[in-house]
From TrEMBL:
Keywords: DNA recombination
A GO molecular-function annotation: DNA binding
Protein name: Tyr recombinase domain-containing protein
Domain Tyr recombinase, residue spans: 121-319
Gene Ontology biological process terms in this record: DNA integration; DNA recombination
Cited InterPro entries: DNA_brk_join_enz, Integrase-like_cat_sf, Integrase_catalytic
Amino acid sequence: MHERYCSIDWRKCRLEHRVKDAMRRFIWYRLSANSPLTADGNFKLLMSNQDVLERHPFPWSAEACLAILGGFQAKRDIFLVFRVFYRWASLKKIAGFTREISSFLDDIAAPEAESYKSVKLRNSVFTAAEESLFVAALENTADDSSYFAFRDNVMVHLNWELGLRTEQVAGVDGNHLVEVVGPNGVSYFHLKIIRLKQRSYKSSYRNRVVSEVLAKKLKNLIALRVKNFGAEVEELPLFVDSGNRRVSGELIRNAIVWMCQQAKLSPGTSTFLRHNMAQKLADQGTPGDLISDMLDHTTKIAARYYVQATPAIAKIKARALGKNATYKELMSLMTGALVHRHDATDSATIVRGVVATRYIGNIGVCGLDVDTACSKNPIYSCYTCRKFQPFINGEHDNVIAALRSEVQLMLDQSLDLGENKVVLQLEKTIEHASDILERCKAHIEGSH
């Protein structure tokens, strides 16, 4: 029932027959040695880059291979797949592929991978509509009349609600569900989840609170397990295959793909569901250290990216880029009139200062008396001061760039936005400076 999603169609291949034949054999090798998902991904990468490969007649020389790699535009995934394909073909002694060129390709460093790119772009999170479809699929396929069908539903529900790794799901035993009855008679449930990475803790397990719906499913599945496999099942794996062995990661991944198909969504993975859970927690203001602990991470690096990708941060960045019309209207009243640099007859009134270790000395003039010292922090405070008259050709873009580098440094050092009020203040300053820059550009364009 749960077939791995795979759509390899060789009719899409336009490459000459020798390359096409070698690729057929390579994809078949990937299917047998790795997994259908890996083979499908390799096929799609190669097919999507046919234009690059077609530009260079086969067999490829070292220079042609170098040009092909350059045509991939520093995309790490296709770079690695092409190199593995060429290496495999040379080892199989397929005509046109040589060990010398394979060694040449191995010596070329692959492009650096951008850490947590999908998290930064919020690609690893369900939209509200997708989440609704996925939850509906979980509800509609929760048939507890059959152990194996119900097992798959519960495994996917665990992945979605708790953001577990496949090994953690497979490691759940029948006696890991704990029910605690409160003073008011209400039952609360938690599940013992094995720690795979956090080995520094005394306990190998972490208690994770589960919803009432999931707890009910787990209890029903335990009952089915007892009915099908015997009374001592509480000390045995909860999720088993038809041979009464603990389920494999492949079975769990297949169940997730199947559930996504029932929801009419693109095939998902356990990693995607982990990212989705973590990002939703970050969106609700959950502290980064708690997210890190729930994901069984040993560092807080990943949690930092989830927090930085929250809509709150996105909203601040949108304002910083001057995209909010409401703020634009108000900002025009925050400073004095725009002036030209040559209108500043007294050099002592020109504003100068340092922003994030960068000296900037050409942004505008201050309306205070020459012998009056500013009680605020010049440059940082200027863009919200009525005494400040911005230069039309001032270095406002340099101010914005310096402020943004300072914000990024602050974000890198703080997991939670709420812990760092300075970030909010800096972003507001960027917001005002961006508005000044737009006003200056509009003035220049209008004068032509």
